[in-house]
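Subject: design request, 271 residues
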């Protein structure tokens, strides 16, 4: 595994030229437009990186965009890879660990999610304060490499408290309201049933989606700081009298993504 991580990191390093990003940014469904704000970009399709998993979902461009966002070097993943696409947990770990090898110290994770709170409707932004993993997927399963991280990483402060505070303050400065809540991950790819949504509420979750948690586990394991944002694109099943579609997710994420872009453009400069 370590050899593959090194190989992937070396391939990316050989292509990014003068850029030396310390911040990694993963863009969720419908949020890829943020990558267009990156100046002087180096663009690397995932297919050009041997050993790197490919994205197959609509709304995920499937490429790395490395350059300057508001004057700060960033590595942006324009479209993530998901467990439900058939990728193994180790493939998800490879992505984050290769970023660590490149020198990334802070990961900003974004996703499109369903709201479990009737007062947090589509278009809302939610800083992730904690998560619940009901995906059945943990990329840390298997032999542990102590040079990457500990066998039993602590998740008490998985989402960095200082970064969360700074992100909310940055949003306030730009006139955008950002809530805070617990994100719950399922494996997907189906949307949840109304009964499942009711259960998730009882468990204390505020939003539900099909990503982010695996990346957080890997990033914390290898010593990165993590901050996450959910863009609410719909209500959970049974909360409103209509069905959910991926097209609705993309549409709502595109709109709310404009607000998130304003916040994150300022945020990367703050940190």
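Subject: RE: design request

Done. Sequence follows.
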């Amino acid at each position: 595994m370590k050899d593959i991580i090194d190989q992937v990191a070396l391939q990316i390093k050989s292509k990014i030229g003068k850029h030396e990003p310390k911040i990694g940014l993963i863009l969720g469904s419908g949020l890829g437009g943020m990558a267009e704000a990156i100046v002087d970009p180096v663009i690397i399709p995932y297919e050009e990186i041997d050993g790197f998993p490919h994205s197959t979902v609509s709304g995920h461009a499937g490429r790395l965009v490395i350059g300057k966002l508001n004057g700060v070097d960033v590595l942006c993943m324009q479209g993530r890879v998901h467990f439900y696409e058939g990728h193994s947990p180790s493939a998800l770990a490879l992505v984050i660990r290769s970023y660590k090898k490149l020198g990334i110290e802070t990961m900003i994770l974004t996703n499109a999610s369903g709201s479990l709170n009737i007062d947090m409707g589509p278009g809302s932004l939610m800083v992730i304060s904690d998560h619940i993993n009901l995906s059945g997927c943990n990329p840390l399963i298997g032999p542990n490499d102590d040079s990457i991280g500990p066998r039993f990483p602590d998740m008490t402060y998985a989402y960095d408290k200082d970064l969360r505070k700074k992100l909310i303050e940055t949003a306030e400065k730009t006139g955008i309201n950002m809530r805070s809540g617990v994100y719950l991950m399922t494996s997907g790819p189906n949307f949840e049933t109304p009964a499942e949504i009711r259960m998730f509420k009882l468990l204390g979750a505020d939003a539900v989606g099909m990503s982010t948690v695996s990346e957080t586990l890997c990033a914390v394991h290898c010593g990165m700081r993590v901050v996450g944002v959910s863009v609410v694109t719909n209500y959970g099943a049974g909360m409103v009298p209509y069905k959910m579609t991926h097209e609705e997710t993309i549409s709502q994420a595109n709109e709310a993504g404009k607000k998130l872009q304003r916040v994150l453009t300022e945020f990367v400069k703050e940190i």
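The mean pLDDT is 92.
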